[in-house]
Fold:
Amino acid sequence: MTETTQRTVLVTGSTSGIGEAIALAFARDGHRVIVNGRDEERTAAAADEIRTATGSTAVEPVAADLATDEGAQAMLAAVPHVDVLVNNLGIFGAQPVFEIPDEEWRRFFEVNVLSGVRLTRLYAPAMAERGWGRVIFIASESAVMTPTEMVHYGMTKTAQIAVSRGFAQELKGTGVTVNTVLPGSTLTPGVEEFLRDRVGPDVPLDEAERRFMAEERPTSLLGRLIRPEEVASMVRYVGSDEASATTGAALRVDGGLIPAIVP
Ligand code: NAD
Structure:
């Protein structure tokens, strides 16, 4: 790269969906990108795909379960220097709130919140010493619009905004920014499968999408699902030098779904 400094970017949970699109965007910009998932083969295959799609050779797979302390330590050992940390990894699943057992509340918290807290704790102090860094948590519109069908998921997304803001405050004046990005419903392979199950095999995907948005996401101003690349564009910006004055913020890529003028 000539004009921009090459950064090392770690995108957690980047073998598919939004994470993969984020990894692609940073790789396209010539940054060194660490692709992560739990399975060695799938992670290597995703890194290969990103290399092929971008022509970049600086795309490296590191398989590790980042919902655990051991996984985070293994990542740190494999990649000691990270400039841009994207805490994307996250799980979701519907369950009536009165039926969610303690273990499931803990699991959601561990995977969706603690994974990012741990990695920020491991990587951000060194970013601060170097005087430059970016930490980005991928939350959801569910952070501010609690979904009745998955309150535990919503809880983790709200918590991400709080911890992100807290880290930003602690890193005041260091050159390290910490922000949260809030995507709305995004057309990832998991959401596509959900839509197909919802309408059956005879209805085309675009019609399923249209019905879902009209019936389940009526406040969307976009009127369609967001594409993973659209979320990646915001993350790419927040992870860049240009975004130096944006920190402690919650940034919406929700197509106007949240019916409020501030998050
Ligand atoms: P996805 O299920 O398509 O991808 C998740 C990735 O995480 C995969 O690469 C998977 O291998 C990896 N992963 C899962 N558990 C892991 C672990 N313990 N350690 C390492 N990797 C692990 O997910 P997605 O839909 O692209 O969502 C990504 C993020 O965006 C999540 O935080 C999610 O909450 C958020 N989000 C998604 C949507 C949506 O509509 N898809 C909307 C708003 C927010």
